[in-house]
Structures are given as structure tokens and as C-alpha cells.
């Protein structure tokens, strides 16, 4: 093997990037340094950059390449014309005899090593400046799979060279100011892993959307991995929490079954060595990876990241003949690596159009977009990314549309409405309770939604001028813990950069309503669901689960785990489901299990449901999910909170019911809190303290029940005020009585976010924690620090 032109992957390391490019150097590094971690990398060889330059010299194409690029830069040739011309120079050339013989000899040695005459190989491009955080060429050059025989190999190598000048690669280098004629390309040749008989995909050692560093994300599809890399299918997705991989647990915090519509497999035609075929219905239902395989890949991702000292983007494949897993590529992750940690966005309005509407402001951002007025979330196909959703009000069915919105405007609702809570967690500005947005704002009108001006949010005509600034945030430490209110698992990892002391309120009912959508009793007793439409919907949602109840348990557990993992080991207080009967009835299949109540707000809700024959079997599923999160997944930072618990005797019944399902207070460190949201919780605090480890004051319901004001009544909004003297006196009493009994006391209502003076009041009365929405966190944290230090 002529070392000038070809080198075995096993002889390479990261020091060889200038010689063989980032991709091939990385493969060699893993073969040499990570085998002791059990990481398998397919053997092979790489051509050197000398091969590339000698090819250019041998075919005298350097000058012609420069001329073609020059015409493009001068505006005399289009991008497509330039790319085609330069690629043609490579495709029409021949390798210098010495280089050609070196490649053929390396292929023959690989054949001897594998014991096959013409082994199938993967032929991959590796640019010399590729996969660096400051210059990512990933995905711009070509890969060729199932290449067999010397002639096919030489053709694939030429096509790799040509792919250095794809249109997208030329455009990228132009934008980055990189000299086209100074970038070289190495070709990596690896034995094929028979993933066509099993599966393959990609893996990241970081959350690619939010930059949360403690998650490994794995995407998987049947067949060769190109379908996942190219994004042509909806793959299975797995999320694994890194920090618990060293413990005796299963820290998989999410599994999403993808559509897996088709796969790439081997083909026999020499000019088409692969083909795409449809997956079978069984393959579409079945997960690509088993549990232990998911964990093994995750451990490899952690080992690779640790070795390189940075987040990594990897490709993996499973051999269908041997069942072995392999890493076939690893490179630095390049999107989140560019983001600066410890920063937050701030917004400032400069010039605006006519004020059209106002309502309660949610969040602190500004957004511009076109109005999309909708009556039903089923119209979501007509909603475009970046539109502004205008509707009467939202419920869990609206969440897929809300995720694509730039902002939300509603006719009805307040700061505790569904629209407000979900918008906070999606970091979307929302103006809620405008009264008549759906009548006033016509479709297609460009408006500005501003929530950066205080408690009142405004809708302005046209596209306003505003500034968005990314600022460094260095927050002071405080004696009083400042925690977050969260419900949406998909949004939780957005807030990992905030130095929160945990989650003071994770709303289980939001996970049920937004993600599971089915009434738990309809899964526990499917035979009692008579409505044909509901039965069809449940069958569709639970396809692939033999046990419909397990669908609920697994997905609820993953939803809770995704929140708990972001803040581990700080406490994450999960409130047991607190739907009202009318809300439960709206869940799929719920009508068969819910009574009609005149006043659901004061009816069969919270603790009274959990031991009742009408919901006991549904509550069992909640308990199973929580037990799985704490014990099997390993997130024992989860604290359970019982809402709307009217009497100490009711508390006993709930705790007994929990213990029946393996959730015994004090066992395995389990702490159980009670929502202190009824006057009885405060008046009988001593007795509740005997039964619970902590109190969490729910200021919304406490205000409602103290003042006799329905918190959902728009007519009585002017009377609903957490700052009322009677409410504050009860809060002060709750803090004093809880602390006198040696119990932790926190508050998880909206008041400290909306009213700084309430935060002051809580700190001065010695509360242990305040839990606020993420958009208010920085402001409240700074306020708490000021009060604690005499401000």
C-alpha cells in the first residue's frame, strides 16, 4: 500500500485532518483510541489529499477549475452551470497510475482481510476543512453505498472528488469566504455494515434543538442510514439521559415511533447498487432498536463525546447478519456549538403602527407575522410556519398549530388559560383575552404582537420596528429557591440554561391532554367505551400496544421524565392530574366516565377522584407512570403533589391508594407534598403537616376560594386579585404554619410573575421557594435577591 496515496483507517488519528479530512481522521481516531470502550468501527482505508492534488495535476484541470469559478464570481456564469462544468472535469478524468494502483491494492488487502473477493464497501467524502465548528461542510459531499469491485470503486472515488463542487458546496464556500481551490478531498472506503438487513441512523450527544447537553438523541430507520441522513422519512426517535447511564436503571426519557414509510436496501444493478422500497406494515409498527441497543449506542455517544471533548454528531448502523452495532461516522456537532451559553433574548419596541387590540401579555417577546384566523385546530393544514394564530380560545388540540405560530392572540382567557400557559413554555408572545380579535383582525393582515411593554400586551397594525438583543445573564444566588412552572415536556429543555432550583409545578394534566389525549379510564376499561368514533381514535393512538393501559403509562412516564431530566438532581414537583369533570369529558372516550356538574371548578376534582370507584383505575395508571419514572428510569428527584385535598381524612385515603401502587411516602426517598390552595389546608395545617412533606401554595385557587370569585369569569376579572389583603393574610399564615411544623413551603401561582410586590411579600415572610413561569424567571430572581439584601 503506497502511503503517499492511501492509508489504513487504523493508522490515522485526529492529527491527520490535513492529510485525510475530518471524517476519515475521526474514524481512525475511534479505531485506535476507543476500541477499549467497546466501540466498533468498520475497517477500511482512506485516500490522501495527495491523491486529490495528483488527480488534478494529472488531468491538467486546475486552471480550468479556476477559470470556471472566476466566471461565476464575476457574474458571467450561474451557479448550476459552474458546478456542472467543474464536476465534469473530475468525472472525465483518470487517476494517475500510481494512485490508481494504490487504491486497487488497498481494496484487495481489505478483501483478503474480510475473506471475500469483491467485498461491498461504503465510499464517503472527507473534505480537509470539513466538520469544523467554524466551517461545517457536512452533507455537502456524496456518499456511495454497496460499491463492489475495483472498477466501481474507482468510479465512486471520481464521483466523490466531483462532489466537492456540488452547487450547495460552492455556494457555502462562497458565503464563508473559503477559497475553493485550497480545499482538498479525501475518500474513505469502509466495509459495508449490512444495515440493509437491519437498521441504521444518526445520533447526537446533545439536544440539537435546545443545546441541552445531558441528552443523547438517536434517530433510527430500517435499512441503510441514508434515508435518515437525508431526512426523507419519519424515523423512530429515542432520547436518553446521560447522567444516569452509569446507574442500574434505564434512563430512556422518550421514545417516539416514526412512520418509517420506506427504507434503502441493496440492489443488484451495477449502475444502481441501492434501491428504496416501502417498509412493511409490521416494520412501520415495530421499533428499530431494542432497549439494550438504545442504551449501548448512548454509552458509545458519551464515550465519543468525552474523548473529543465536545458534542458530537454520529452515524450508526446495525449489521443484520451478526446483530452487531457499529459507528460509521463521527464529527463535531456544529449548530449548538456556535451558540453562546448563559444568554437570553430581550426585546425593545422602537416604532409601531396603530394600536388595534390589547389584552393580557404573556411572555416578553415581540413578533411580526400574518394573521391566520381559525375556528378549529383541524384547519391546521392551512396554517403556515410563522403565522400569528388568532382564535377564540385554545385547548390541548391546538398545540400542534401553536408550535408553528410566531405568536398567539385570543378573544378569551387570562393568565392561567391554556393559551397563556402553553405560550409561555413555547417561548411565544401571546395576547390573551382581547375580547374581539377574531372579529377585528382579518386573515392575511400583517400585525405586530408586543408583550415587551409590561403586563398589557398590544397588537399593532403592520410590521413594527423593534430590537432583539441577546444579553449575557449572570444571576445572583438567593436563599429563597426560585423554581419554574412547566407542563410541556417538549418545551422543558428550552430552559436548561436558566439557573432554576428545580420545578415547583409540573402539571400532569397538560401532558395527558396534549400528548396522550385519551381519558385514562377509557384505556383501563376500553370495553365501556360505546362511542364508535372514540373507539376508532383510541385504536389508532394505541396501535402497536397490546395493552392499551400501557400506552398511557409509558407515554406519561416519558413526558414526566423529559421535564425531570432537565433539572436533575434538583426537585421536580409533579402535580397529580387536576382536570375538572368537563375537561376530563373532552378527552377521547371521556364522556362515558364523567358526570355533568353545575360547577366543575368546585366539583369532583383533585384528591377526591383518586380513591373514588369512578377514577381509581385511572389513578392507578398515573401511579404506575410515576413509579416508572422514579425507579426504572432513575429520576428520583420527582416529588409527588396532591391537589385540591379538602380534609386530612381525604389525604389518608389518597396516600393509602398511592401505597397500593408502590408509591409509599418515605420509601426510596419519595416525598409527597400537598397543594395549599383551600382555606382548610391552612386552617388545619398542623394536621396536614403530619401527612405531607411540604406545602405548595396555589395562589390562583386560594384567591378564588377566599374571595368567592370564579377565576374563569371574565365579568369578575376586576375582583380576582392575589394581592387582596385576605389572600395575603392566608398566604402568610400558610408560610408560618408550614415552617413551624418543619415542612417546606413554596408558592407556585402566577402572582409573583405578574406582581413584583407579591414576590417581595413572600420573601419577607420567609417562604422557601417561589415557582414562576420561565419568561418571568430572571426578573423574579433579581427581585428576590434585592429583597434578601435589603432592597
**What level of helicity do the residues show?**
25-40%
Number of strands: 30
**Span between termini:** 75 Å
Structural class from helices and strands? Answer: alpha/beta
List the total number of helices.
Answer: 29
Low-confidence residue ranges? 130-139
Based on CA atoms alone, the radius of gyration comes out at 30 Å
Rough outline: elongated
| Residue fraction in strands | 15-25%
Q: Summarize the biggest pleated sheet.
A: 8 strands, parallel, barrel
Strand order in the sheet with the most strands: 23-24-25-26-27-28-29-30
Mean pLDDT: 91
List the helices and strands and how they pair.
Elements: E1 6-8, H1 17-33, E2 44-47, H2 49-58, H3 62-73, H4 79-91, H5 97-114, E3 121-127, E4 143-147, H6 150-162, H7 167-176, E5 185-191, E6 199-204, E7 215-222, H8 226-229, E8 236-241, E9 252-256, E10 262-269, E11 272-278, H9 281-285, H10 291-308, E12 312-318, E13 325-332, E14 343-351, E15 355-362, E16 366-373, E17 388-391, H11 399-402, E18 407-410, H12 418-425, E19 430-432, H13 437-440, E20 446-450, E21 456-461, E22 465-472, E23 481-486, H14 489-492, E24 503-507, H15 508-516, H16 520-524, H17 532-541, H18 548-567, E25 572-575, H19 581-586, H20 607-610, H21 616-633, E26 638-642, H22 648-660, E27 672-676, H23 679-683, H24 685-689, E28 694-697, H25 699-707, H26 725-740, E29 744-747, H27 751-754, H28 756-764, E30 769-772, H29 777-788
Parallel strand pairs: 16-17, 17-18, 18-19, 23-24, 23-30, 24-25, 25-26, 26-27, 27-28, 28-29, 29-30
Antiparallel strand pairs: 1-2, 2-5, 3-4, 3-5, 6-7, 6-12, 7-8, 8-9, 10-11, 12-13, 14-22, 15-19, 15-21, 16-20, 20-21
Helix pairs in contact: 3-4, 4-6, 15-18, 18-21, 28-29
Amino acid at each position: 500500500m503506497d502511503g503517499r496515496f492511501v492509508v489504513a483507517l487504523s493508522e490515522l488519528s485526529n492529527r491527520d485532518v490535513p492529510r485525510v479530512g475530518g471524517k476519515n481522521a475521526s474514524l481512525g481516531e475511534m479505531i485506535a483510541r476507543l476500541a477499549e470502550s467497546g466501540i466498533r468501527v468498520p475497517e477500511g482505508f482512506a485516500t490522501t489529499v495527495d491523491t486529490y492534488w495528483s488527480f488534478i495535476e494529472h488531468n491538467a484541470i486546475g486552471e480550468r477549475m479556476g477559470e470556471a469559478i472566476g466566471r461565476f464570481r464575476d457574474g458571467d456564469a450561474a451557479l448550476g452551470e459552474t458546478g456542472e462544468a467543474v464536476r465534469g472535469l473530475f468525472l472525465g478524468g483518470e487517476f494517475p497510475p500510481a494512485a490508481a494502483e494504490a487504491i486497487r491494492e488497498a481494496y484487495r488487502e481489505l478483501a483478503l482481510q474480510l475473506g471475500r473477493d469483491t467485498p461491498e464497501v461504503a465510499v464517503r467524502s472527507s473534505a480537509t476543512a470539513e466538520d469544523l465548528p467554524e466551517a461545517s461542510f457536512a452533507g455537502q459531499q456524496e456518499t456511495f453505498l454497496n460499491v463492489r469491485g475495483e472498477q466501481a470503486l474507482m468510479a465512486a472515488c471520481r464521483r466523490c472528488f466531483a462532489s466537492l463542487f456540488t452547487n450547495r458546496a460552492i455556494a457555502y464556500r462562497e458565503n464563508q469566504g473559503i477559497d475553493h481551490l485550497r480545499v482538498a478531498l479525501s475518500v474513505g472506503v469502509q466495509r459495508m455494515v449490512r444495515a440493509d438487513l437491519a437498521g441504521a441512523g444518526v445520533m447526537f450527544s446533545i439536544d440539537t434543538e435546545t443545546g441541552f447537553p445531558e441528552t443523547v438523541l438517536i434517530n433510527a430507520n430500517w435499512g441503510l442510514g441514508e434515508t435518515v441522513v437525508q431526512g426523507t422519512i419519519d424515523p423512530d426517535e429515542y432520547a436518553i439521559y446521560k447522567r444516569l447511564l452509569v446507574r442500574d436503571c434505564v434512563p430512556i426519557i422518550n421514545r417516539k415511533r416514526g412512520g418509517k414509510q420506506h427504507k434503502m436496501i441493496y440492489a443488484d444493478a451495477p449502475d444502481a447498487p441501492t434501491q428504496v422500497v416501502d417498509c412493511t406494515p409490521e416494520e412501520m409498527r415495530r421499533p428499530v432498536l431494542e432497549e439494550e441497543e438504545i442504551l449501548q449506542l448512548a454509552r458509545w455517544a458519551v464515550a465519543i463525546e468525552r474523548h473529543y471533548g465536545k458534542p458530537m454528531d454520529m452515524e450508526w448502523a446495525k449489521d443484520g447478519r451478526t446483530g452487531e452495532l457499529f459507528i460509521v461516522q463521527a464529527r463535531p456537532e456544529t449548530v449548538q456549538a456556535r451558540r453562546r451559553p448563559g444568554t437570553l433574548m430581550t426585546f425593545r419596541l422602537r416604532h409601531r403602527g396603530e394600536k388595534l387590540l390589547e389584552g393580557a401579555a404573556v411572555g416578553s417577546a415581540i413578533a411580526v407575522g400574518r394573521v391566520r384566523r381559525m375556528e378549529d385546530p383541524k384547519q391546521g393544514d392551512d396554517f403556515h410556519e410563522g403565522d400569528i394564530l388568532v382564535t377564540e380560545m385554545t385547548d390541548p388540540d391546538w398545540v400542534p398549530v401553536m408550535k408553528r405560530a410566531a405568536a398567539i392572540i385570543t378573544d378569551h382567557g387570562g393568565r392561567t388559560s391554556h393559551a397563556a400557559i402553553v405560550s409561555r413554555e413555547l417561548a411565544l408572545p401571546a395576547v390573551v383575552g382581547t375580547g374581539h380579535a377574531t372579529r377585528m383582525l382579518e386573515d392575511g393582515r400583517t400585525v405586530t404582537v408586543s408583550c415587551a411593554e409590561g403586563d398589557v400586551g398590544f397588537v399593532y397594525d403592520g410590521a413594527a420596528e423593534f430590537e432583539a438583543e441577546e444579553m449575557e445573564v449572570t444571576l445572583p444566588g438567593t436563599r429563597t429557591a426560585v423554581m419554574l412552572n412547566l407542563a410541556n415536556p417538549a418545551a422543558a429543555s428550552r430552559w436548561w440554561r436558566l439557573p432554576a432550583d428545580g420545578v415547583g409545578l409540573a402539571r400532569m394534566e397538560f401532558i395527558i391532554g396534549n400528548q396522550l389525549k385519551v381519558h385514562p379510564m377509557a384505556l383501563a376499561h376500553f370495553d365501556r367505551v360505546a362511542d364508535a368514533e372514540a373507539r376508532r381514535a383510541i385504536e389508532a393512538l394505541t396501535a402497536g400496544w397490546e395493552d392499551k393501559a400501557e400506552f398511557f403509562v409509558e407515554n406519561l412516564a416519558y413526558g414526566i421524565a423529559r421535564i425531570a431530566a432537565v433539572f436533575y438532581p434538583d426537585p421536580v414537583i409533579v402535580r397529580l392530574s387536576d382536570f375538572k369533570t368537563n375537561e376530563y369529558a373532552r378527552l377521547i372516550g371521556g364522556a362515558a366516565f364523567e358526570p355533568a356538574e353545575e360547577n366543575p371548578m368546585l366539583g369532583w376534582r383533585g384528591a377526591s377522584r383518586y380513591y373514588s370507584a369512578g377514577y381509581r383505575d385511572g389513578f392507578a395508571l398515573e401511579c404506575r407512570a410515576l413509579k416508572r419514572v422514579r425507579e426504572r428510569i432513575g429520576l428520583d428527584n420527582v416529588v409527588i403533589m396532591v391537589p385540591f385535598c379538602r380534609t386530612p381524612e381525604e389525604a389518608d385515603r389518597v396516600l393509602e391508594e398511592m401505597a397500593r401502587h408502590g408509591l409509599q411516602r418515605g420509601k426510596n426517598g419519595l416525598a409527597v407534598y400537598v397543594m395549599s390552595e383551600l382555606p382548610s389546608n391552612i386552617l388545619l395545617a398542623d394536621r396536614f403537616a403530619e401527612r405531607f412533606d411540604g406545602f405548595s401554595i396555589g395562589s390562583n385557587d386560594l384567591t378564588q376560594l377566599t374571595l368567592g370569585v370564579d377565576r374563569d369569569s371574565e365579568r369578575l376579572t376586576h375582583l380576582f386579585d392575589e394581592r387582596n389583603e385576605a389572600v395575603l393574610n392566608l398566604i402568610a399564615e400558610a408560610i408560618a404554619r408550614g415552617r413551624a411544623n418543619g415542612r417546606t413551603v413554596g408558592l407556585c401561582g402566577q402572582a409573583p410573575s405578574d406582581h413584583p410586590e407579591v414576590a417581595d411579600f413572600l420573601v419577607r415572610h420567609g417562604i422557601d421557594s417561589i415557582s414562576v413561569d420561565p419568561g418571568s424567571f430572571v426578573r423574579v430572581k433579581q427581585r428576590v435577591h434585592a429583597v434578601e439584601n435589603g432592597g
